[in-house]
Amino acid sequence: MNQAIRNSWIVAITLFALLFGSISYVQFFAADALNKNPNNNRQLIANFCSNRGPILVSGHPIAESVATDNDCKYQRKYNDPYLYAGLTGFYSLGNGQYGLEEAMKEDLAGTSNDALFERIAQTFTGAKPQGRSVELTIDDSIQKLAYSMIPDGVAGSIVVMNPKTGAIIAMASKPSYDTNLMASHDSSVVAKAYDELVQTPSINLFGSPAFTQTYAPGSVFKLVDTAAALESGKYNKDSVLANPAELAFPGINYALPNYRYGQCYSQTTATFKFALENSCNTPFASIALDLGQDAITKQAEKFGFNDSSVKIPMGVETSRFPGSTGVLDPPSLAQSAIGQLNVTATPLQIAMMTAAIANDGKQMKPNLVQTVRSPDLKTVSSLTPEVLRQSTTPAIAQQIKDWMVSVVDNGIASGAAVPGVKVAGKTGTAEVANNLNNAWFTGFAPADDPQVVVSIVMPNVDVATGALLTSPNASKLFKAVLKK
C-alpha cells in the first residue's frame, strides 16, 4: 500500500514538474520565437497594446505609452512630434515600425534576451509588464534651435555632435509630420495619413534625411582631397598648387571651371591655405588627377565613405565615392574630386568626417542612445565611446584643422565665426539643377579643444539663400552648445 502511494506521488510530482517546465519554457524561453512569428497576429496586437517603454530626451518623454479606456490598453503618444519624427519614427499596427521604435524595439517592448529575469520578476510579483526606457544623447534645447533654423519649404538637415565621443547632440530635419497620426488605434486614420505622407517629397517618414538621404557634397569633399594629398607625401603645407581659371581636357569640349565666388580668379597658383579659404576647384581636381582615383577612394573610405555597417542604432545610408560609376575617366575624376557627379554623402557622414579631423584623426562611432534602463530604473547599458577607425594621422589632422580655421578667419566661411572662439570650418556648394545648389557648412569649435561639430545641408537653394542658412546658423549653434 505504501509503495502504491509512493508511486502515485512520484507520478504526480513528475507531471507537475513537466507541466511547470512546459509553462516556463513557453512563457520565457520560447517567447521570443513565438512573439516574432509573423503569423502570430494575437501577439502583434498584444505588443501594440502593451506598456512600451518611453524614449527620453533631457529627462522628458518624446515617445511614451499612455493608458486608454478601450480594449487596447495602451496607445503610443509622441510629444513634440514634428521636432523628433525623424528620430523616433513611429510604431503602427498596420504599417510597421521605423526609426528608434524599430531599432530599439526589443528594449522598448521589454522582450530582449537579457530582459528575461525582468519578465520573470514581473510575472511572479504580479506587476504589469513594462518595457525599458531609452534615454537619448540629444539635447532638447539644441535640437529645437537646429530645427528652427530650417525654413518651412526647405528640405534641410542639421547634425550636431561631440567629436570626442560620437554622441549626437542634435539631428534635425524638415519637412516633418505628426507621428501621432501613425500611432492611432483608428485604422482608417492611419491609412489616410500614411497615403498622404508617402506622397510628400523629402519627408522624414522613415528616418531623418540626416542619416537616410545622400546629397552631392560639393566642396566639403575637398577635405578628403587635402588629407589624401598630405598622406601621399607628394604634397606638404608649403606646396604651391596650379590654380588656372579652368581645367581643360584634351580631345573633349569640356573644361572644369574654378569656383566663381571668393578670390580664386585673382591668382594662377595657390597654397592649400588660399585654395581652401576660397574653395578653389581646379587645384583639388588637379590633385586628384595626380594621385589617381584609388588614392582618393582610399582616403574617402578612411573617413567612412562606402561603409554600409554604421548604425546609430538605426542603419545609416551609405555615402559613396566615386559612386556606382566604377573607373573614372579624367574629367569625371576631376568633377568627383570636388564633390560632384555621382559622389554622395549623408549629413551624418560629413559630420563624422569633420569630427575625425577635430579628434586628431580618430573617428568615433556615432550614437543616439545614451542610456537604457529597466522599469525599476536600473541602468542596463550606457554609451561607451568607441573608435571606428583612424582616418588620418594626428599631424595631418592638425594641419587641416589650421587651414579650416583660416577658412573661417579669412575665407568664405566667415559667417561661422564666434567672437573669442577659434572656429574651424568649410563650406560647400554642389550644383544640382535650375541654378540651384546643395549648400553645405561643416566645422567644429573650439578649434584648439574641439567640443562640438556642426554639419548643415540645405538642398536645392540659390547661392544667396544657402549662404544665409549655413555658416551663420553654424555660428549660433556653436555659441549655444559652448554656453552649456
Automatic annotation (TrEMBL):
Pfam families: PBP_dimer_2, Transpeptidase. Residues 52-134 form the Penicillin binding protein A dimerisation domain. PANTHER family: PENICILLIN-BINDING PROTEIN 4B (PTHR30627:SF24), PEPTIDOGLYCAN D,D-TRANSPEPTIDASE (PTHR30627). It comes from the Bacteria. This is Peptidoglycan D,D-transpeptidase FtsI family protein. It comes from Arthrobacter cryoconiti. Gene3D superfamilies: DD-peptidase/beta-lactamase superfamily, Penicillin-binding protein 2a (Domain 2). Residues 156-468 form the Penicillin-binding protein transpeptidase domain.
